[in-house]
Amino acid sequence: MSACYNIQNRLLGDGHFWIVAGPCSVESAEQMERIAQSVARAGGQVLRGGAFKPRTSPHDFQGLGVSGLALLKEAAEKYGLLTVSEVMGSEEIPVVSDFVDILQVGSRNMQNFSLLKQLGKSRKPVLLKRGFSATYHEWLMAAEYILEGGNPEVILCERGIRTFEPSLRNTLDLAAVPYLRTLTHLPIIVDPSHATGLRTLVPALSQAVVAVKADGLMIEIHPDPDSSLSDAAQTLSLEAFEALIPVLKKLGSVLGVKV
Ligand code: PEP
Ligand code: MN
User: Is the CB of 54 inside a 6 Å radius of any atom of ligand 1?
Assistant: First the structure.
């Protein structure tokens, strides 16, 4: 069992399962309103949305920056949801902290040690995504930088690793969940969207995430997935997302996981 965190009166871990959902990138007020309403309706806890985006190409959409964070916060507050958004560099910590409840470290930054050290001084919980080539030891040591700095609330997020299999964006390592239980008390959530890159695979793998008794799921959703400005192929529609949640709840009830 993992530790139980109380983040703004929302419990995570030790049997309390979180649904974290939202768009890859915050795009507009209308988009965020529809998504936040859907997450709340599904019983989710956290609204995600990137505003400072780590894109592979500098020519791709880079996110709305501070105005995106404001849209994320506004939509989440209206529906009583917590928020998470990525911080790419130490200089972004103060501004992102002004708007969100949880700071996300992306896969590409898992071993950005100066960023991790600065996050150790933050009072906000940190969602630490696994580097796409990181071993369990490297991932846990990255978490240790934040914990060692004095910040006790780190959430691990498995998001797929790079393997020899080219058909999918990444390979989802679900063994990470039960294996890391033997090594750490930190809550572990799983992101099947970035792990597969294909929206059709997200429902089945989300069920598997409940089955391995992870502490939560992070899923990318959008009212019009094909028009998403980033990661369209892996983004679920609001309808597909809302249809999935009752299945996860039913599965959770059999396994003693409170979805
Ligand atoms: C994200 O969750 O927005 C993201 C960029 O994911 P990752 O860092 O896992 O690629
Ligand atoms: Mn994405």
Answer: yes
Strands 5-7 and 10-12: antiparallel
CA distance 7 to 102: 9
Residue with CA at minimum distance from ligand 1 atom 8: 106
Using the mean position of ligand 1's atoms as its centre, give its distance from the Cα of residue 181 in Å.
23
Q: Which ligand is nearest to the Cα of residue 55, counting in written order?
A: 1
Write down the pLDDT at residue 1: 80
Residue 53 CA, closest ligand 1 atom number: 5
- Our CA angle for 116, 98, 151, nearest 5°, is 35
Per DSSP bridges, beta strands 102-105 and 126-129 are: parallel
Which of the ligands is closest to the CA of residue 24? Answer: 2
Instruction: Say if ligand 1 is within 6 A of residue 15 CB.
Output: no
Rg of the chain's alpha carbons, rounded to an integer? 16
Ligand 2 centroid, distance to 21 Cα (angstroms):
11
pTM of the model: 0.98
Computed over every residue of the chain, the mean pLDDT equals: 97
DSSP string for residues in 184-228: --S-EEE-HHHHHS-GGGHHHHHHHHHHTT-SEEEEEEESSGGG-
